[in-house]
Known about the structure:
Pfam families: Hydrolase_3. One of its GO terms (cellular component) is cytosol. The protein has helices at 12-16, 25-36, 49-58, 92-102, 124-132, 142-148, 163-170, 197-208, 225-228, 242-247, 260-268; strands at residues 7-11, 40-44, 67-70, 75-78, 83-86, 108-113, 116-119, 136-139, 153-157, 179-184, 187-191, 215-219, 233-236, 250-251. It is of the alpha/beta class and 270 residues long. It folds into 2 domains: 2-87 and 195-268, HAD superfamily/HAD-like (Rossmann fold), CATH 3.40.50; 92-191, Hypothetical Protein, Haloacid Dehalogenase-like Hydrolase, Chain: A, domain 2 (2-Layer Sandwich). Strand 13 (233-236), helix 10 (242-247) and strand 14 form a beta-alpha-beta unit. Helix 2 runs parallel beside helix 11 and helix 4 (92-102) packs antiparallel against helix 6.
Amino acid sequence: xxxxxxxxxxxxxxxxxxxxxxxxxxxxxxxxxxxxxxxxxxxxxxxxxxxxxxxxxxxxxxxxxxxxxxxxxxxxxxxxxxxxxxxxxxxxxxxxxxxxxxxxxxxxxxxxxxxxxxxxxxxxxxxxxxxxxxxxxxxxxxxxxxxxxxxxxxxxxxxxxxxxxxxxxxxxxxxxxxxxxxxxxxxxxxxxxxxxxxxxxxxxxxxxxxxxxxxxxxxxxxxxxxxxxxxxxxxxxxxxxxxxxxxxxxxxxxxxxxxxxxxxxxxxxx
Length: 270
Protein backbone atom coordinates (compact mmCIF):
# COMPACT_ATOMS: atom_id res chain seq x y z
CA UNK A 1 0.00 0.00 0.00
CA UNK A 2 2.84 2.41 0.86
CA UNK A 3 4.12 2.13 -2.73
CA UNK A 4 0.93 3.88 -3.91
CA UNK A 5 1.42 6.94 -1.69
CA UNK A 6 1.87 10.19 -3.62
CA UNK A 7 1.00 12.70 -0.88
CA UNK A 8 1.81 12.91 2.84
CA UNK A 9 0.01 15.23 5.27
CA UNK A 10 1.03 15.68 8.88
CA UNK A 11 -0.49 17.28 11.95
CA UNK A 12 1.89 19.56 13.86
CA UNK A 13 1.36 19.74 17.63
CA UNK A 14 2.28 16.51 19.44
CA UNK A 15 2.69 14.72 16.10
CA UNK A 16 5.47 16.22 13.97
CA UNK A 17 6.54 18.67 16.67
CA UNK A 18 8.27 17.35 19.77
CA UNK A 19 7.55 18.65 23.26
CA UNK A 20 9.96 21.53 22.64
CA UNK A 21 7.85 22.56 19.62
CA UNK A 22 10.68 21.65 17.24
CA UNK A 23 11.19 19.15 14.41
CA UNK A 24 13.90 16.54 14.89
CA UNK A 25 16.76 16.06 12.45
CA UNK A 26 15.41 12.57 11.63
CA UNK A 27 11.99 13.96 10.76
CA UNK A 28 13.40 16.84 8.74
CA UNK A 29 15.70 14.63 6.65
CA UNK A 30 12.87 12.20 5.92
CA UNK A 31 10.64 15.08 4.77
CA UNK A 32 13.42 16.33 2.48
CA UNK A 33 13.72 12.86 0.94
CA UNK A 34 9.98 12.80 0.15
CA UNK A 35 10.49 15.74 -2.19
CA UNK A 36 13.41 13.93 -3.84
CA UNK A 37 11.05 11.01 -4.54
CA UNK A 38 8.36 13.27 -6.00
CA UNK A 39 5.98 12.78 -3.08
CA UNK A 40 4.08 15.89 -2.01
CA UNK A 41 4.40 16.80 1.66
CA UNK A 42 2.35 19.25 3.68
CA UNK A 43 1.14 20.09 7.16
CA UNK A 44 -2.28 20.61 8.68
CA UNK A 45 -2.85 22.93 11.63
CA UNK A 46 -5.41 24.97 13.50
CA UNK A 47 -3.23 28.03 12.94
CA UNK A 48 -3.47 30.44 9.99
CA UNK A 49 -1.51 29.71 6.82
CA UNK A 50 0.51 32.91 7.15
CA UNK A 51 1.97 32.20 10.59
CA UNK A 52 2.47 28.51 9.75
CA UNK A 53 4.61 29.52 6.76
CA UNK A 54 6.88 31.50 9.08
CA UNK A 55 7.23 28.53 11.41
CA UNK A 56 8.07 26.19 8.53
CA UNK A 57 10.92 28.53 7.66
CA UNK A 58 12.09 28.49 11.27
CA UNK A 59 11.92 24.69 11.34
CA UNK A 60 13.86 24.51 8.02
CA UNK A 61 11.24 22.52 6.10
CA UNK A 62 9.65 25.32 4.07
CA UNK A 63 11.41 24.27 0.85
CA UNK A 64 10.20 20.69 1.32
CA UNK A 65 6.57 21.66 1.96
CA UNK A 66 4.16 21.76 -1.00
CA UNK A 67 1.02 22.82 0.86
CA UNK A 68 -0.47 23.96 4.15
CA UNK A 69 -3.96 23.15 5.37
CA UNK A 70 -4.67 25.86 7.94
CA UNK A 71 -7.56 26.52 10.30
CA UNK A 72 -8.17 22.77 10.73
CA UNK A 73 -9.00 22.36 7.05
CA UNK A 74 -10.64 25.73 6.49
CA UNK A 75 -7.82 27.11 4.31
CA UNK A 76 -5.49 25.62 1.70
CA UNK A 77 -2.17 27.16 0.63
CA UNK A 78 -0.34 25.95 -2.49
CA UNK A 79 3.38 26.72 -2.12
CA UNK A 80 3.95 26.66 -5.88
CA UNK A 81 1.23 29.15 -6.82
CA UNK A 82 1.42 30.93 -3.42
CA UNK A 83 -2.37 31.22 -3.45
CA UNK A 84 -4.75 30.59 -0.54
CA UNK A 85 -8.21 29.07 -0.82
CA UNK A 86 -10.68 29.64 2.05
CA UNK A 87 -13.80 27.60 2.77
CA UNK A 88 -16.99 28.32 4.73
CA UNK A 89 -15.95 31.24 6.94
CA UNK A 90 -18.19 32.27 9.85
CA UNK A 91 -20.18 35.35 8.88
CA UNK A 92 -21.15 38.34 11.00
CA UNK A 93 -24.58 37.15 12.14
CA UNK A 94 -23.14 33.87 13.45
CA UNK A 95 -20.24 35.67 15.11
CA UNK A 96 -22.63 38.05 16.83
CA UNK A 97 -24.71 35.19 18.22
CA UNK A 98 -21.55 33.61 19.65
CA UNK A 99 -20.38 36.95 21.07
CA UNK A 100 -23.66 37.78 22.78
CA UNK A 101 -24.10 34.32 24.26
CA UNK A 102 -20.65 34.23 25.86
CA UNK A 103 -20.09 37.91 26.64
CA UNK A 104 -20.79 37.43 30.36
CA UNK A 105 -18.39 34.49 30.67
CA UNK A 106 -14.87 35.09 31.98
CA UNK A 107 -13.06 34.29 28.73
CA UNK A 108 -11.17 36.03 25.91
CA UNK A 109 -12.51 35.95 22.35
CA UNK A 110 -9.85 35.52 19.66
CA UNK A 111 -10.30 36.02 15.90
CA UNK A 112 -7.64 35.29 13.27
CA UNK A 113 -7.00 37.27 10.10
CA UNK A 114 -3.79 36.22 8.42
CA UNK A 115 -1.09 36.28 11.08
CA UNK A 116 -2.99 38.87 13.14
CA UNK A 117 -4.90 37.68 16.20
CA UNK A 118 -7.66 40.07 17.32
CA UNK A 119 -8.59 39.67 20.98
CA UNK A 120 -11.27 41.05 23.29
CA UNK A 121 -8.71 41.23 26.10
CA UNK A 122 -4.91 41.08 26.04
CA UNK A 123 -2.86 39.42 28.78
CA UNK A 124 0.79 38.51 29.08
CA UNK A 125 -0.09 34.86 28.55
CA UNK A 126 -2.09 35.47 25.37
CA UNK A 127 0.66 37.74 24.04
CA UNK A 128 3.26 35.06 24.74
CA UNK A 129 1.14 32.48 22.93
CA UNK A 130 0.80 34.74 19.90
CA UNK A 131 4.54 35.42 19.90
CA UNK A 132 5.35 31.71 20.10
CA UNK A 133 3.62 31.15 16.76
CA UNK A 134 4.91 34.38 15.19
CA UNK A 135 1.47 36.01 15.29
CA UNK A 136 0.63 39.60 16.22
CA UNK A 137 -1.95 40.12 18.95
CA UNK A 138 -4.19 43.17 18.55
CA UNK A 139 -6.64 44.36 21.19
CA UNK A 140 -9.88 45.15 19.37
CA UNK A 141 -13.48 46.16 19.83
CA UNK A 142 -14.60 42.73 18.69
CA UNK A 143 -18.30 43.60 18.81
CA UNK A 144 -17.69 46.23 16.11
CA UNK A 145 -15.17 44.04 14.26
CA UNK A 146 -17.60 41.19 13.67
CA UNK A 147 -20.19 43.51 12.16
CA UNK A 148 -18.10 43.86 8.99
CA UNK A 149 -15.72 40.89 8.96
CA UNK A 150 -15.98 37.12 8.57
CA UNK A 151 -13.53 34.67 10.13
CA UNK A 152 -12.52 31.03 9.71
CA UNK A 153 -12.97 30.33 13.40
CA UNK A 154 -13.52 31.90 16.82
CA UNK A 155 -11.49 30.85 19.86
CA UNK A 156 -12.73 31.28 23.42
CA UNK A 157 -9.63 31.35 25.60
CA UNK A 158 -9.96 30.81 29.36
CA UNK A 159 -7.74 29.81 32.25
CA UNK A 160 -8.18 26.09 32.89
CA UNK A 161 -10.04 26.73 36.16
CA UNK A 162 -12.49 28.97 34.23
CA UNK A 163 -13.11 26.62 31.32
CA UNK A 164 -15.97 24.81 33.14
CA UNK A 165 -17.91 28.10 32.96
CA UNK A 166 -17.47 28.14 29.18
CA UNK A 167 -18.55 24.51 28.87
CA UNK A 168 -21.58 25.06 31.08
CA UNK A 169 -22.62 28.07 29.01
CA UNK A 170 -22.16 25.99 25.87
CA UNK A 171 -24.97 23.66 26.98
CA UNK A 172 -27.55 26.36 26.25
CA UNK A 173 -26.00 27.48 22.96
CA UNK A 174 -27.68 25.91 19.93
CA UNK A 175 -26.81 27.19 16.47
CA UNK A 176 -26.91 25.13 13.25
CA UNK A 177 -24.48 27.52 11.55
CA UNK A 178 -21.50 26.77 13.78
CA UNK A 179 -19.93 23.89 15.68
CA UNK A 180 -18.02 24.14 18.94
CA UNK A 181 -15.38 21.84 20.39
CA UNK A 182 -12.79 21.83 23.17
CA UNK A 183 -9.27 22.06 21.73
CA UNK A 184 -7.28 21.91 24.97
CA UNK A 185 -7.81 22.89 28.63
CA UNK A 186 -7.60 26.58 27.68
CA UNK A 187 -9.29 26.83 24.28
CA UNK A 188 -12.81 26.23 22.98
CA UNK A 189 -13.32 26.90 19.27
CA UNK A 190 -16.21 27.50 16.87
CA UNK A 191 -16.11 26.96 13.13
CA UNK A 192 -18.53 26.18 10.32
CA UNK A 193 -20.02 22.67 10.82
CA UNK A 194 -18.63 21.57 7.45
CA UNK A 195 -15.04 22.34 8.38
CA UNK A 196 -12.76 19.65 9.77
CA UNK A 197 -9.47 18.05 8.78
CA UNK A 198 -11.25 15.42 6.69
CA UNK A 199 -12.95 18.17 4.69
CA UNK A 200 -9.56 19.81 4.16
CA UNK A 201 -8.18 16.50 2.92
CA UNK A 202 -10.98 16.21 0.35
CA UNK A 203 -10.23 19.74 -0.88
CA UNK A 204 -6.58 18.75 -1.12
CA UNK A 205 -7.48 15.77 -3.31
CA UNK A 206 -9.51 18.01 -5.62
CA UNK A 207 -6.75 20.60 -5.79
CA UNK A 208 -3.97 18.18 -6.75
CA UNK A 209 -6.06 15.56 -8.52
CA UNK A 210 -4.93 12.89 -6.06
CA UNK A 211 -7.09 9.91 -5.08
CA UNK A 212 -7.76 9.59 -1.35
CA UNK A 213 -6.25 6.09 -1.24
CA UNK A 214 -2.90 7.59 -2.28
CA UNK A 215 -2.70 9.81 0.82
CA UNK A 216 -0.75 9.02 4.00
CA UNK A 217 -1.81 11.05 7.06
CA UNK A 218 -0.28 11.41 10.52
CA UNK A 219 -2.04 12.66 13.66
CA UNK A 220 -2.52 12.29 17.39
CA UNK A 221 -5.70 14.01 18.62
CA UNK A 222 -9.47 13.71 18.37
CA UNK A 223 -9.70 16.51 15.80
CA UNK A 224 -7.39 14.45 13.55
CA UNK A 225 -9.90 11.58 13.32
CA UNK A 226 -11.81 12.89 10.25
CA UNK A 227 -8.47 13.09 8.42
CA UNK A 228 -7.00 9.80 9.65
CA UNK A 229 -10.18 7.84 8.93
CA UNK A 230 -10.47 9.34 5.43
CA UNK A 231 -6.87 9.00 4.20
CA UNK A 232 -5.66 5.89 2.40
CA UNK A 233 -3.37 5.18 5.36
CA UNK A 234 -3.95 6.80 8.74
CA UNK A 235 -1.01 6.62 11.15
CA UNK A 236 -0.99 7.89 14.74
CA UNK A 237 1.95 8.46 17.04
CA UNK A 238 2.32 6.38 20.20
CA UNK A 239 1.23 9.36 22.33
CA UNK A 240 -2.11 9.62 20.49
CA UNK A 241 -5.38 9.56 22.40
CA UNK A 242 -7.21 6.24 22.72
CA UNK A 243 -10.04 7.25 20.38
CA UNK A 244 -7.48 8.02 17.67
CA UNK A 245 -5.66 4.72 18.15
CA UNK A 246 -8.98 2.91 17.78
CA UNK A 247 -9.54 4.13 14.20
CA UNK A 248 -6.00 4.24 12.79
CA UNK A 249 -4.55 1.78 10.29
CA UNK A 250 -1.16 1.97 12.01
CA UNK A 251 -0.12 2.88 15.56
CA UNK A 252 3.52 3.94 15.60
CA UNK A 253 5.67 2.46 18.38
CA UNK A 254 7.32 5.89 18.59
CA UNK A 255 6.08 9.12 20.21
CA UNK A 256 6.43 12.64 18.85
CA UNK A 257 9.56 12.92 21.01
CA UNK A 258 11.04 9.86 19.29
CA UNK A 259 10.79 11.02 15.65
CA UNK A 260 7.69 8.93 14.95
CA UNK A 261 7.12 10.53 11.54
CA UNK A 262 10.69 10.20 10.29
CA UNK A 263 10.96 6.63 11.53
CA UNK A 264 7.74 5.58 9.79
CA UNK A 265 8.75 7.23 6.52
CA UNK A 266 12.23 5.69 6.62
CA UNK A 267 10.90 2.22 7.38
CA UNK A 268 7.96 2.17 4.97
CA UNK A 269 8.17 4.82 2.24
CA UNK A 270 11.76 5.89 1.58
